[in-house]
Structure formats: C-alpha cells, structure tokens
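Fold this sequence, please.
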Amino acid sequence: MSRAVQTRRLREHIASLQTMTRFVLATLALGSGVYTYLGVRSLLDGSATIIFFAAIIYSVSVSVAMYGFWTYLIRFLPEMRDGGSRLSLVGIMVVGSAMIVAMSSWLNAAALAGSAAVEQHLAVTLEDYTADLDQAHSNALGALSLLPDIQRASERFARLAADEQATGALTGTSGSGSVVQLLTQMSAQMNELAATIEGSRETVQLSFAEGQAHLATMRTLVSSPGQIAPRSDAFASEAVKLTGVIAALEQTSIAPSVMRAAADLSVGFIAPVADGNSADLAGRQDQVMATIRSSVEAQSAALAEAAGEILAQPKVPDRRYVPLTAAEAVIRYASDFVPSWAGAISIDLLPAVLVGIMCVVHGAMRRGEDEIDDADRITAGDLLRSLDLHEALLARRRASADIADDAPVDGADQTRREHRPAAENVMSLTLGERKRSDP
C-alpha cells in the first residue's frame, strides 16, 4: 500500500470516527457524573432537597469539565508538530488528570465500594474490640494464677499447726500454745485472701459474658444485609456499651488488692506472747515464731512480686469508635479495594487513551505526507480546477491576439509579424505544493 493511499484512508477513518469520538467522550463523562453524584451524596448533610440539587450541580460540573477537557486535548494535542508544544500539552494533561482524580475518581470509588469499605471499617474495629476484651479478661483473671500458691501456703500453715498441737513437731511440746495460735492465724489470713480471689472469678466471668454478647451483636451488624448507615449507627451504640464492659473488667482485677494483702502479711505480722509454763518452752516458742515470721515475710515478698508482674502487664488502650462515611472509608482502606479504585480512575482517564491513539494516527499521516510526491498530493478536484484555469488563460490569450491582429500596422511591423513563428497553444503551469484540507 502506498503512502498516499494509507494517508488518505487514515484521514477518511478520522473523519468517520468524529461522531463516535464525541459519543464516547460524552458517555464516559456522563457515567463519571452519575457515580460522582452517588458519591457526593454521602458527604452532604441537610434536607433531601438541598442534598439532591447540590449533588446534581456538582456532578454536572464534573461531567462538563471532563468532556471539555478531553475534547480540547483530542483536538489540539495530535496537531502539535514541535516537541515543546507537545510536551507542554502533555504536562497540562497530567495536571488535569490529577485534578479529575481529586474531584471525581475518589467519589466514583466511594459509589462503587463505599458500603463495602464501611463494612471493612466495622470489621477491623470489631477485631480491635475483640482483642481489647480478651486482654481485659486476661488481666482480670491474672490474680487467679496466684490462687494455688496462696492455697498451698494456707494448707502448710494449717498442717504445721495441727502437727504442733498433736505431737509438738515445732517446739517439742504438744498442745495448743502460742505457736499453734500463730500458725492458725496465718492460715486463716491466707484463706481469706484465697476467698477474695476466688470471689472475683464470678464477677469477671459475668462481665466477660456481657462483653461477648455485645461482640456477637456487633458481628451480626457487620455481616447482615441492608443499608450500611443504620447498621453503622447500631454498631456505634454497641461499641459504647462494650467500652464500658472493658473498663469494668479493668477495674475488677484483684491483683492490686492481692499486692496490698501480701504486703500486710509481713508489715502487719503480730506474734503472740510465748505462753510456755517454763522458760525453756517459752524460749523455744519464741524461736519457732521468729522462724514463722521469716517464712511469712518470704511468702509475702513472693506474692507481692507475682502481683507486681500481673500489674505490669499492658493495659487495654483507650479506644473510641469513629464512624466513617463511604468516601472516607474508601480512602482509608484503599489497598483493600484496588479493583474499585482502578475502575473509578479508568472511567475518568480512559479518554487519555483516545488522545494517544489520535496522536499516533496523526503522526503516521504526517510521516506519509512527507514522503508523498507532488503529483500524489493533487486530487481530482485540484486537477479539474487546473484544467479550467488553463482553458481560461488560453482563451484570454486568443482574445488578446485577435485584438492585436485587427489593429492597423505599418510595413515593418507587418513584415515582422509575417516572419514571427506561431505561438504554441500549450502553456505550462506550475502548481505550488499544497496540503489537502481535512474533508
């Protein structure tokens, strides 16, 4: 296929696609405007009438701006021949595309995936609250891990008191004396502390069950069908209740009380006066009570250290549920909705592909025109007009010659005219190189 034929066909195709190009641009602008309308409605507050007209005006403005922007580019950019002008328009296209994404694409994405993004926000928040409830429950139950040690210490004091009373295992003299009284007292204190810890178990379990019920309701709201706005409001209400339950669990922890009780074991240790009938028995009782005092101090230090480790565990962070609109959610969780973002941006920037196609086609036509001979540049209409002009010039020359022949002449001029060679009736015409205009 010759360059002339290719160039001619490309021009014909461009001319035939003018209507289609306008239709494509108008359709894309209209589609973007519709989704922009749906997206902008979620951002506006007020009466239904105000929201409707405000969203309509904004979406129409976006559609008109997009259509005009891409129409200008698709007309002017392919016609640019020098690199500077072409680069300038490309830069303008990049800036305009960024503005289109800023004013329209994110709203399109909100219309396409806004509800799903809000549900994603609810699901993420639900996971956070679930972790908070588990951590608060774990902190509240931390003191229960001390219960076996306290019970063993209480049993040990009680067993020593029984052995001392029955066989005099500590002082060598059986019976109920000061040592038995002291061991029984320490066993009773340990039992009281164990009962306090055991009693907190039921309170913690009740609070945890209440929190689990709120979490179940929140899960139902996340996964249930229907409009997202009322579900989000109900979710917020449940989140407030769950926050109260978590705070109550934090206050229910018995670890601070255990730490204070452990300190009281040694600080508040009161040993009875030895009541032995002899000085030897009283001395032995004093020695055993001193040993018991050392054992109580060691037990107190161990319990205080264990309670301190429980208190050192990370606290549940303060959390507050923040509702998000569809437009805000689709931006925060953009990485989870890449296909929706790609579709929203593509519907706005697809005309850039048409601009690129037109640039390539016009470039190919210009390269073809540079290689076309002068004869190939002349159309049939140009040739017919040239023939008409040629005939008109010949007729004018004949008329001039006839007028000259009729005029009187002297003898010398007559002799020169008779001997002058006859003029040729063909006149060469030089047609300047011209470019064909678009049909």
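Residues 83-141 form the longest helix (59 residues). The chain has three domains: 3-114+336-370, 118-329, 380-439.
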